[in-house]
Design a protein that fits this description.
about 150 residues, mainly beta, Jelly Rolls, 1 helix, about 15% helix, globular
Length: about 150
C-alpha cells in the first residue's frame, strides 16, 4: 500500500514538473555569419572558434576581436531578431525563453563590451520583453532596429 501511495505521489510530482517545463521552452541563437576572429563559450567549456551553424543557448557567450564580426539569428528559421556583434565585443545570451502557454518571449542580451546592432521584429504580446543590459543601463524595445555600445573604462 505504501508503494502505491509513493508511486501516486511521484507521478503527481512528475506531472506537475513536466507541465511547468512544457510552458517554458528555451530558445536558440544560430550563428549565421562569421568574419575574422570570433569565439564562443558554450556552457562551462573554454572559448572555441565560432562557426556558421553553431547554436547558442541561454547563458552562452560570444566575443569578437579586432576587424571581426558575427551575425546571430535568434530563434533560427523563425528569426525573431538578428544581432550583429561588432568588433571587439563580448556578449552573453542572458535569457532566451518562450512561455508557450502565454505566447510570450523573453530576450535579454548582456553586452559587457563593444557594440551590437539589433533588428528586432515587433513583439506579438504585451508581456513579451526584448532587452539589452549593459554595465550602466537596460534598454527595452518593442520591435525596431537599434544599436547599443559599451566603451571600455580606462
Amino acid at each position: 500500500m505504501k508503494i502505491i501511495k509513493l508511486l501516486c505521489i511521484a507521478g503527481l510530482i512528475f506531472g506537475l514538473c513536466s507541465s511547468a517545463l512544457a510552458e517554458q521552452a528555451k530558445r536558440i541563437a544560430t550563428i549565421a555569419e562569421v568574419n575574422g576572429t570570433v569565439e564562443v563559450k558554450i556552457g562551462k567549456q573554454n572559448w572555441v572558434p565560432a562557426k556558421v551553424g553553431i547554436e547558442l543557448n541561454q547563458g552562452d557567450f560570444i566575443r569578437t576581436r579586432k576587424d571581426s564580426f558575427a551575425l546571430l539569428n535568434l530563434d533560427g528559421q523563425a528569426q525573431t531578431a538578428t544581432v550583429e556583434v561588432k568588433e571587439n565585443s563580448q556578449m552573453r545570451l542572458a535569457e532566451l525563453i518562450e512561455n508557450q502557454k502565454e505566447g510570450t518571449q523573453t530576450t535579454l542580451l548582456d553586452l559587457a563590451l563593444g557594440e551590437i546592432l539589433i533588428q528586432a521584429k515587433k513583439l506579438h504580446s504585451e508581456k513579451s520583453r526584448f532587452e539589452v543590459k549593459t554595465p550602466t543601463s537596460i534598454v527595452g524595445v518593442r520591435g525596431t532596429t537599434f544599436s547599443v555600445t559599451v566603451e571600455a573604462v580606462e
